[in-house]
Automatic annotation (TrEMBL), chain A:
<dbReference type="GO" id="GO:0005886">
    <property type="term" value="C:plasma membrane"/>
</dbReference>
<dbReference type="InterPro" id="IPR013563">
    <property type="entry name" value="Oligopep_ABC_C"/>
</dbReference>
<dbReference type="GO" id="GO:0055085">
    <property type="term" value="P:transmembrane transport"/>
</dbReference>
<dbReference type="InterPro" id="IPR017871">
    <property type="entry name" value="ABC_transporter-like_CS"/>
</dbReference>
<protein>
    <submittedName>
        <fullName>ABC transporter ATP-binding protein</fullName>
    </submittedName>
</protein>
<dbReference type="InterPro" id="IPR003593">
    <property type="entry name" value="AAA+_ATPase"/>
</dbReference>
<dbReference type="Pfam" id="PF00005">
    <property type="entry name" value="ABC_tran"/>
</dbReference>
<dbReference type="GO" id="GO:0016887">
    <property type="term" value="F:ATP hydrolysis activity"/>
</dbReference>
<dbReference type="GO" id="GO:0015833">
    <property type="term" value="P:peptide transport"/>
</dbReference>
Automatic annotation (TrEMBL), chain B:
<feature type="transmembrane region" description="Helical">
    <location>
        <begin position="12"/>
        <end position="32"/>
    </location>
</feature>
<feature type="transmembrane region" description="Helical">
    <location>
        <begin position="278"/>
        <end position="299"/>
    </location>
</feature>
<dbReference type="GO" id="GO:0055085">
    <property type="term" value="P:transmembrane transport"/>
</dbReference>
<dbReference type="Pfam" id="PF00528">
    <property type="entry name" value="BPD_transp_1"/>
</dbReference>
<dbReference type="Pfam" id="PF19300">
    <property type="entry name" value="BPD_transp_1_N"/>
</dbReference>
<comment type="similarity">
    <text>Belongs to the binding-protein-dependent transport system permease family.</text>
</comment>
<dbReference type="GO" id="GO:0005886">
    <property type="term" value="C:plasma membrane"/>
</dbReference>
<keyword id="KW-1133">Transmembrane helix</keyword>
<feature type="transmembrane region" description="Helical">
    <location>
        <begin position="100"/>
        <end position="121"/>
    </location>
</feature>
Amino acid sequence: MSAAILSVRDLTVKAHLDDETRILLDAVSLDLAKGEILGLVGESGSGKSLFCRSLVRLLPSSRLKIEAGSVLLEGQDLTAISDAEMLNIRGGEIGMIFQNPSSHLDPVMRIGDQIAEGIRYHQGLDGKSARRAATEILSQVGFPDPICQYQSYPHEFSGGMRQRAMIAVALSCNPKILIADEPTTALDVTIQAQILQLLMELRDRRGLSIILITHDLGIVAQTCDRIAIMRGGKLLEEGPKRQILSRPRDPYTIKLIHSHPSMPDAEPVAEVAVAAAPVKPILEIDDLHVRFRVGGSLFRGSAVKTVSAVSGISLQIMPGETVGIVGESGSGKSTLARAVLGLTPLTSGHISFEGADLALQRQASLKKLRREAAMVFQDPFNALNPRMTIGQTIGEVLLVQGKIAKADIPQRIDELLDLVGLDREFASRKPRSMSGGQCQRAGIARALAVDPKLIIADECVAALDVTIQAQIIDLFRELAARMNLTLLFIAHDLAIVRNLCARTIVMYRGEVVEDGPSEQVFSRPSHSYTASLVAAIPDINPDKSLFSDARRVPQSIPSIKSMP
Amino acid sequence: MHRYRFVFLRPLQFLPVIFGISIITFILVRLIPGDPARVLLGTRATPTAIANIRAQFGLDEPIWLQYLYFLRNLANGEMGKSILYKIDVLKLIATRIEPTLALVVCSVLLSIAIAVPMASIAARNAGRGPDHAVRIISTFGIGFPPFWLGLMLIILFSVKLDLLPVSGYGATFGDKLSHLILPSLTIALSLSTVLTRSLRAAMIEGLKSDVATAARARGMPERIVFWRHVLPNSLVPTINLLAVNTGWLIGGTVVVESVFALPGMGQLLVRAIFSRDYMVVQGVAMVFACATVLVNFLADIATVAADPRVKL
C-alpha cells in the first residue's frame, strides 16, 4: 500500500450534555492511501458521518468536542491548526458531498455560480476564469450542455443531475480527498450506478482519495478498495474488501453481510400455492388511467397540459398474494397505490376491491376500502401523530372501525404490539422517543388494527437501516403467511422485492412492462428496462462487476428523469 | 422568461377587485351619519340652500344612480368634485400624494435598513447577549404606539437637539427629506420589529441548514456563508410579510401625518371624513386600496425574482 495521505489515530469525540458526557467516537484509527476508495459502513448512529465531519472540524453541535487523537493530513495535524487554517483544508484539501443534494445545494443560486464560488475563493481566480473553470468541471461530471446548464438552478435538475452538480461543487476546490456521505441513497438504482461510476472515474483521472460512507455493502463491494465497519462509535474491523466480505471476523459484520438482500444465494421465495379452487381476485384494475393537470390557470385554459402518471394499467391481485411493484421514481407506482385506496381521483378505468367498483360506487367502495385495506407509509416518523402515544394511535383506529367492543380495545392493542414484535410498554410511548424501526413497526400495527385483507406498503423500508430493513421484511413475510394478508409492496429497491414477494410487477412511465413470478422476472427479465434495472443492483460479490460491459446499463432505455 | 408571464396576466384580475372596492367604499361612505350640505353650510343654512347644494353634487338622486355616476366618472378617469374644496378630486389627490408616497417609501427602506442588521446580529449570536438585546429593543418598538413615539422623537431631535424640523413639509428635495426623517423613523421603528423577528427566525434556520453546512464544508468563511447563502434564502419569506405590512402602512399613515402635520393623503382623508366630503373620501379610499393591490403585486414580482423555484 502506498503511503497514507490521511492518517487518523485514536480520534475521540464526546458530547457534553447537561447531566452526562457521552462518547460518540471511541478512539477510531484509520488510514487512507492516495487514490484509494475506502468504504465506511455502519447503521445510522454508528458514528460514520460524525467521524468524517470531525476530520474537518464540522461538528453538528457546539456540545460535541474532539477530546483526543490526531488527524494527520500529509503530515499536518488537523486537530492542532487554527480555525482560519481549517478554512483552506475544508474544500481545498478535503471536499464533501452529501446524501441529499436537493437540500445541500443553494436553491436561489445558479449551479454554475455555486461551483465558481469555490474556485474563486480557493484558487483566487477572477470572475471570468472561474466561470470558464466551472463550465469545464460541469462537463467533467457529465453535464451534456455545461455552458447552458451553468445558468440553471438546482430545482431544474433531476436527483441524479443534482448529485452530479454537488460533486462538481466539491471538485471546484480541487481537493485531494473526497468524502461522500451516502451519495446515492436517495437515487434510483440506474442513476446510482452512474454516480458510482463517475466517482470511480474521478478517482482514476484525478488521483482522488475517496471515503465512501454507505450502509449498502453491495456498493462497497462494487466500488471500494478497503472496508471499515463501524458501530456505536467504534471501529469494529477494517481491511481489504475481499478479505472482509469473504472472511468477516466480527459477528456484526457477519450479520451485515447476511442481511444484504442481494445475497446471491438468497433463498428463492417459495411459490405461494394459490388455492386450487377458483378464487375471485381481491383487487381488479382495468385499464386505469390517472392524469394530473400541470400548469394552466384562469387565463390560459388552452395551455393546460396533463401528465399521465398511470396510463392503461390492468391487473388482477388474488387474495393472499404478495406482490412487489418496482420502478424508478416517477414511474407511477405510488400513484397506482394511492388510486387503489381512493386517495387520488381516477381519470378513467376501473378499480374494484372485492367487487366494489371505485369508479362506479365511490362512496360505498371507499367505505369498504377503509374497513378492509390499510396503508403503511414511507416515513414512519412523520406518519404517526407526534402528540399521541402509540396506544392512542392504534386505539383510535380500533374505536373508529368499531369491529371490537370498546372494553376489549386495550387487550387488542397489546395483541397488535405482540404481533409486530414491539414490547407492550410501547403503548404509552410517543413517536419521538422511538427509533425509526420501532416507529415503522407501530405503523404496521396501526395498519393491522384495521384487520385488513389488503395492505399497501409504499417504500416502507426505504428510510431504514439495512439490518432494520431486514427485520421489517421478515415481519411482513411472517404476517402475510400467518394472517393470509394480501400485500402490495412498493419499492425502488429490487433486491428487497425479490426477497419478499412472490410476484413482481415492473412499472415504467406509468405502464406495466413486466409482470410475473419474482424468480422469473429477476433471472430472465423479458423487457429490456427490467434487465437494465436488475443489472444496476450493486452485487455484494465484487467479481460480479456493476461496471463490466456485460452488465453495463443499456443506454437505449432513457431514464424517466431525462425525458423532455 | 415564462415565469414572469403573470406580470402581464395578473393585472386582469385587478379589475374585479377594484370594482368590488368601489362598491364597498361607496356604500360605507354613505353610512357615515350626517349630510355634507349641512356640514358645508353650517347650522343656520336655509332648506333651499341645502337643497341647491344637494342638487349641485347629485346627492338628491337615488343612491344606485349616484353609484352609476361614480362608476361612469371612474371609467373616464374622474372622481367627481370635492364638496369642500370645490375642485376636482383627482387634482386634489395629486397635490397630496407626494408626501404620503415619499413617507411610505422612506419608511419601508428605513425599516429594511434597520431590520436586516438587527436580525443578522441576533441570528449570528442566537441565545447570547446581542440576541437578547435585539429582542428587548424589538419589544419596546412594538410596545410604544406610533403617535407617542413620534412625539418623543420630536421632543428629542427637534426641540432639545434642534437637528430636524418639528413638522410640516419642505419645498426643495433636501428640505423635504429632512422633514421626512422623523415620521419615517417613527413608522420604521415599529415596522422593523416585525421584520426583524421574521428575518431572525429564517436566518437561524438558514444557519443550521444543509446549504450552510455544504458551504462550510467547501471552506467558505462564516461571513460568506451568511451573506451569500443564508441571507438570500431568508429574504424570501420576509417579502410577503413586508407586503402585508406595507398595505397596512398605506392606510396607517393617517396618524403619523397628523402628528407631524405632513400635508399628505392621510390628513386629506381625515378632514374629508369630518366634513362628509363623500367624493374625496371615496377617491382617497380608492387610491389607498389600489396602492395596496399594487404593493402586493410588486411583492409577487419580488418573490419570483428572489426565489427561482416560485411559479405564479
